[in-house]
Amino acid sequence: MTTRTKYVVLSMALAAAPVLAQQGGNRRLAEAAQQGKYMPPLCPMKAINSKVDKAIDQIKKSYDAKTPAERAAGLAQAKVGLLAAITQEAQATTGAAWYYLGRIALLQGDPVGADSAFTKAQELIPACEIDITQHRQNNWALLANAAIEFQRKGESDSALAIFRDASTLFRGLPHVYSNMGVVFANIGKDDSAAMYFKKSLDISEQDTSLVEDRNGAAMNLGLMFQRLNRHADAIATFRKYLGWKADDTEAQKALSASFRAAGMADSAAAIDNAMIAAFSKANLDSLDTQDLMAVGVAAFNASRYDQALNAFDKAVKRNPYSREARYNLANTYFALKNNEKLVEESIKMLDLEPMNEDLLRLLAQGQRGLKREEDVIKTAERLVALPFTVDLTGLQLGSNGAKLQAEAVGRTPQDPQGKALKTAPITLVVDFLSQSGTVVDTKEVTVPVLANGAKHAIVLDATGQHITAWRYRIKAG
Q1: CB-based burial of residue 467 (10 Å sphere; 0-12 exposed, 13-18 middle, 19+ buried)?
Q2: For the chain, which has fewer Cβ within 10 Å, the N-terminal or C-terminal residue?
């Protein structure tokens, strides 16, 4: 049975801001910090050193500088003066010197320097915690918005660079960590994704106003543990999550899958049977499609194939182009030994995914069960001649688009006599479809000649509303 993996992209309720290139530090941070007027500290602070006093005056003047070069020169002089006061004039225990070093670092776009200086200043002047936190969080928010814009455009490296700067400045909210987890999950770096989802969960668990953030982080963390085959950790995480959202069928399915992977079949069966019992009290037609799929998966795993068939059949009727629903329906026909329907469903699926060796094998199984030997031979010839197989690894659906992730895996194509076939690059035309089958967007991808077992990543971003499925064909000519 297949289940759809979801990753929660958490939007942040922050004002949007223009994204600027990074040159010599975080230019986005520097430009944002220099906007507006100089604000004095909102906490008691005394400067008792001439170099510190002079640096404060230079910081104030930087806001009124006529040119960027004039501002940069003034800030550089102020920094030199503060460092001289700290190292040469016994000001290392003066909180004001460190505080203003932090302010300069923000104006220069240096998040690491700001973090270090503000940390020292807060140790020396605890009463300035609120003021320092405000500086940290305001600039964190500006950077986070810039990173989210890159994230939405699929520019992962740029997004991560700015997210890292944001998390250096402020670590008190989960949103940046959660979005970093999403980026790493979507580029296949599951260890890193799990680490950042864990950071997000740890923070959001401490604040009752962050319930949705907590739940999203926990669900995603559990899914990452599954990807990493850390099923004991996944089980613990899903159990925690279900303690908060006991009726979440996606989490119940995921918990059942981890129980099975961990060799705990009885525990998995208990989850499946509980899901079936809960849904049996409802009219299947009243359930949404994801819940229908949950019923089908739970019933299939409990070997209740008739119930699974009923659920998957309804899901397919709602969305005839759903790869997940059709694949599960075909496997249910196989389990029921309904070879006529298995052949019928396999042919429909191969119309959507002609380069999938698993579907060809399902078709051959059905044909063999019907004793259609000539058809079996034709399907086998088609299978051995396949230069590569395409495996879906992820389909993320959004309100204004979709992201398809798949892998082409090389095979050794042969003719019916076992002679190696010459191969050439093949271009696939991928249609992104609405539930009615309307083509919303079309993309092309060329798969190069692949050695046996070699992999070629396919990542396509589609634009348009109401995308629910996809199909592809080989480009003619």
Answers
A1: buried
A2: C
